[in-house]
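Sharing a chain and its predicted structure for anyone who wants a worked example. Both blocks are below, sequence first, tokens second.
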Amino acid sequence: MTPAAVTGDRAAAAFARRQAPTRAVADQAGAVARACRDMAGRFHGGGKLLVFGSGTRATDAQHVSVEFVHPVIVGKRALPALTLATDAATVSGLALAAGPAEVFSHQLRALAAPADIALGLYGAEPDPAVTAGLREARGRGLLSVALAAGGPGVVETPVDHLLSVPSEDPRIAKEVQVTLYHVLWELVHIFFERPGALPTPGPPTCVTCSDQAQAFPVVSLLEGSLAMVDTGQGLEKVSIALVDACVGDRVLVHAGEAIAVVPPEEGEPACPAGPAEPPGEDLSSLYPFLYEERDADPDAVLGDVARSTAAKAEEIALLRQQVGEAKAHRLAACASAMAQAFAGGGRLLAFGNGGSSSDAQAVAHAFLDPPAGERPLPALSLTNDIAVVTALANDIGFEVVFARQVAAWGRPGDIAVALSTSGGSANVLAGIEEAKRAGMLTVGLAGYDGGKMAEAALDFLFVIPSSSVHRIQEAQTTVYHVLAELTQAALAAS
């Protein structure tokens, strides 16, 4: 059967539905600011971020991890973050052995330390696995943060911070959550720049403050007769004024003071090079919050962060409105073409790098596992199989990791969806060219002015007119959700 055409008015209406939930982020600006402050405090104390979610929230967990580990803004610090949702062997093995509800809590028991942060992502329905993970985390002393949708009732365990999107539409909820976790990343750094506004670390973090002497390895030497030691729960500063220690030594610490160097075991070197120099310029520029102490009024900083949160919510609301008004008819035409391809037996192949890699996975999920009542459609993300990606990158080069897969999978009548914030990723452009050679329908999502994707003669290209990587990605999420929604509508009306 021939799918029905969808109209630009329907696309415009879909964008309009996003406005109120997006602007509602401003109503939680104070809660966002407090969550940023407490997360910054944990990072400042040496903690790491552990992120988890099920279904499409698993792709968000990956995106969060990328944001913190690989900053998109020059000069921001790389922060330790790990998603618990992507190791297929571990997740499927635990689901088989202990049940799906234990897949995150089990990993937390093995990987988490009390100084860490647990971030759980929910949709509009309760998620036993996320709830069990947050419960386990909080019981172990981690800072617990939940992003939910539809109301706080889906989070069936107490958490330290709860941010909820006032929408039960699964697509809209995800889009606003993307804004929330982008804002968390962006504004955590404000507290690093003003350490005086950070919360004082609690007892679980300050292992070296104990009255009982304990041995810890020295990982770096600081100015002022101080050193950084690894407590197993994070990094902590201690005084080494009473001992001559170097990096690699184990020092006996009592009440924040190193009182002795533990003799090396037989066969271990005994600091042959002498005491190490204090950290160089590169490390201190990456992690200045470890080496500088500047005072700030905590209430003033919280107010700044809350105002910034509200401003960012307004910024993405206006950008979505602009995109909806400018591109509604073109989106409707693209969705009609995609519905035609699916009706003819076509498949969708999505690809991108970094945050756009997790978005490519979200695109595939949006079509293959749509909301209840919609038709599952064949879709693959070419970023998922890490063995294939790394084999191609190692044996040939990273520029072919998508093109080779498109050559293997792509057929005339299939759909290629390419995502890039810059529009200039060489491997994405190569994937587009291979898709064109294969006779596929080509759809591109880019930011700024479209970059080289604007020169690639795609069938459809949607450029988000923004210079902010985060706002581009947030609007791109809406674009591919609206395409999925309109494609389903066209197929349902056939």
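Comments welcome. Residues 318-492 form a domain with the Rossmann fold fold (CATH 3.40.50.10490).
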